[in-house]
Amino acid sequence: MILLLLLPATVLIALIFGIPLIRYAWISTHAFSVITGLELVPNQGANWLRLINDQRFWQDTFQTVRFASLSVSIELLLAICIALILDQKWRGRGITRAISLLPWALPTTIMALGWRWIFNTPFGPIDQIFNIVGIESINILSNPNITWIATVIADVWKTTPFIALILLAGLQSIPNDLYEAFRLEGGKPIQAFFKITLPLLRPYILLAVLFRLAQAFGVFDLIQVMTGGGPASSTESLALYAYLNAMRFLDFGYSATLMLGSFFLLVIACILSWIIISRFQYQLNEEKT
Amino acid sequence: MNKKMNIIIGSLIIWSIAPLAWQLYTSFSSPEALVEPFSQIKNRWTLENYIQVLTADPPFWKYLLNSTIVGLTTTFITLLFAIPAAYSLSKLKPIIAKSARLILFGAALFPYVLLFLALLEFARYLNIGNNLIALSIPYSALSMPLAVLLLSSAFKDIPKDLEEAARLEGLGIFQRLRWILIPLIAPATSSTAILIFLFSWNEYPIALTWISKNDLLTLPVAIARIAGSSVYSIPYGAYAAATVLGAMPLLLIVLLFQKQIVSGLTQGAIKG
Q1: Predicted model pTM
Q2: Which ipTM score applies to this complex?
């Protein structure tokens, strides 16, 4: 009877998460595009072979990893600072929290276009300020070496509040007595941060990093709207490449292969970061003893 | 010390608001002012952008309405499925419940944009593209894992004796849910509901591929379309006006439900 209550939700989740993955596995071993007349024709792993030899796929993997790791690390550092501040008691804390939540709550597409305007050369404020200060304008959104940094900034702006809130929950779960005891033993606040706060915050950091890493790895909205993957596909993410293959080149077989490929890479990335963060904890414990 | 903190808090607020403020400023700027943002010119201010957005075909409020419809249906369907599932999860044997939670956690992490192709095939196969109510089916499924996780931890927090007493009184399982348990988890339900609503309001890739009719677009897609209309000259003034109008409902939601949003996110973190 109790299991019966679980059924509808399970069916829905299996339908929307499970079946697509199985379907991708099936499509990825077939030629399936406008050329085949939208028929599935088995092609003995040709899609996977193409994936391995596809330079654009590896370039996009590099870009996605670069984007995800830089933005998640900046977000994590900023979020720890913000969470430490929000954890104190001061007037106006509630309203500050609400304001800092706003970037997170807005649709990504809205602010992706907003950032495109802000970084516009020569009419956007950044370029105008550069002009006034006397720095040469650097064509932020048309220089393949710089544009990806602009997308990182937009991402940091949007998702730092989210991480900060998760870490804040972690901070609030640490009992005050611990700090009190540490202080009485003559420990300095900065030591308390490394010996108490950081180790106890670890599960929350892990959670936030895993969550954000997965999201940043599948980044799509921001890139598609802000840069369209350009200039010279320098900001193209794996998800955007898979999208283009399906919707523009109408090669569904290869698109499905790309999506499964990205999924495998993501799983590897998550396991790696799990190991790194656990190792970090281990070292902290070693220091303590 | 205090002064330092004020500076940090001040910059946090400015950092969060400045890009939005720039949109607000742009939305009231005339075309001449747009290209000279920091110089003195006449005719700087205009309402033209707002008039253009509100009198376009379809008018802008239509997109807001569409997004609201999808948001409300999604929230309703998700809760309808998630509440019983969460209850059942909280009653299962620890080992099974733990592995179920792990699977749900993985699904909640999953970058769902990777599912869009199969979901598009699904929509074509059943011929349910261009239908706002149908759009809430994948949305409900995508927000289900998080909803079940949040709600099942709320169910777990309810003292066992309470339900036991109700059972001895002769209340059946549905009566217990309806009269005892669901009222008790109301706070968790409301924060879950807001998170679901925000997710479906903001969702982009699936709406982009499922909806092609102009007057059925949801807000994020409609706004992205303004950009897509031409690569070289985006009507930034009109666009900024659309942004401001589109951000208003969310501003309201965040201000009104700040507590629920925060507790939803943090509960997820603590129990996850």
Answers
A1: 0.89
A2: 0.86
